[in-house]
Automatic annotation (TrEMBL):
Domain HTH merR-type: 13-80
Keywords: Coiled coil, DNA-binding, Repressor, Transcription, Transcription regulation
Family annotation (Pfam families): MerR_1 (PF13411)
Residues forming coiled coils: 87-114
Xref: InterPro entries: DNA-bd_dom_put_sf, MerR-type_HTH_dom, MerR_fam
Protein name from the UniProt record: MerR family transcriptional regulator
Native organism: Amycolatopsis bullii
Keyword Cytoplasm listed: no
């Protein structure tokens, strides 16, 4: 992970508690992301100190998670040496998202549709959705 060679510990740097509060995250999530190689905050003694760049990284992780990226992909995206590597990963994720949206759209249409069946579990349309799920699994 790219880090500035010398990190000056100054008053602008934030503690893990401040960062957690700022993003509404439990502190253990920040420690977990660090253990997974997504974050590398500086240390003042044993205490973590987060720079503005670290905060932007947390924001990037949250945006990527919202877009459905898995942690391993996010790590690759954050640590990829080239913009091309990141673009390739984003393109793959776009395809996965399109597929997920299509499935969600189909599910919504099923639930929105004027199904005459009283019980969803006995509805043939719903059962065919289950069949498709079984074929995928
Ligand atoms: Zn039905």
């Amino acid at each position: 992970m790219d880090m500035p060679p010398i990190l000056r510990l100054n008053a602008d740097m934030k503690s893990i508690g401040e960062v957690a509060a700022r993003f509404g995250l439990p502190a253990h999530v920040l420690r977990y992301w660090e253990a997974e190689g997504l974050l590398a905050p500086a240390r003042a003694g044993t205490r973590r100190r987060y720079t503005d760049a670290d905060l932007r990284r947390v924001a990037a992780i949250l945006v990527a998670k919202e877009a459905g990226f898995e942690l391993a992909d996010i790590r690759t995206m954050l640590t990829a040496r080239s913009a091309a590597g990141r673009a390739e990963m984003a393109a793959r994720q776009r395809e996965r998202l399109r597929a997920r949206i299509a499935r969600a759209q189909a599910a919504l249409e099923l639930l929105d549709g004027d199904c005459p069946h009283e019980d969803l579990m006995t509805c043939p349309h719903f059962q065919s959705l289950l069949d498709r799920q079984l074929e995928r699994s």
